[in-house]
TrEMBL record:
Organism of derivation: Ambrosiozyma monospora
Protein name (Swiss-Prot/TrEMBL): Unnamed protein product
Length: 137
């Protein structure tokens, strides 16, 4: 139960920061930062807590394994666009600098290394899923 809760908490922090960026940059929410963080954390922690309480101690191990398999399947599809879009100045610039735009885009070396790591991790995920299926997990 602790590992599932910690897994949920780590995703809470990622989703909180992501939600903050999206709400500030694209939705233009005018909430105070602490309210925005509270909303995004509640959105992510409530399902984790509900699952933990409803399936009990015996089901938590299976739920944790299932969540890791789902992450292995989904993360490559989420990370590929992040690597792609963060490589362009068009998307990764800030206009909050008084002297003009500040460039936050990846240079070509970082983009290539990220792409190689993405391919490696994706292959390892596919291998892990195949092995889990063979073992009947």
């Amino acid at each position: 139960m602790v590992s599932l809760l910690l897994s949920g908490l780590s995703s809470v922090f990622v989703v909180t920061i992501t939600g903050q960026m999206v709400s500030e940059g694209h939705i233009n929410w005018s909430f105070k930062p602490w309210i925005r963080r509270l909303i995004t954390r509640l959105i992510t922690i409530i399902p984790t807590l509900a699952i933990s309480l409803s399936i009990g101690r015996d089901g938590l191990s299976k739920a944790l394994n299932a969540s890791q398999v789902i992450l292995s399947v989904l993360l490559p599809f989420i990370i590929a666009p992040v690597i792609y879009f963060t490589s362009f100045k068009k998307y990764m610039k800030s206009n909050k600098n008084l002297e003009g735009y500040k460039d936050f885009s990846n240079n070509w070396i970082v983009a290539i290394v990220a792409g190689i790591l993405w391919v490696f991790i994706s292959c390892m995920n596919v291998y892990g899923i195949v092995q889990a299926a063979k073992d009947g997990i």
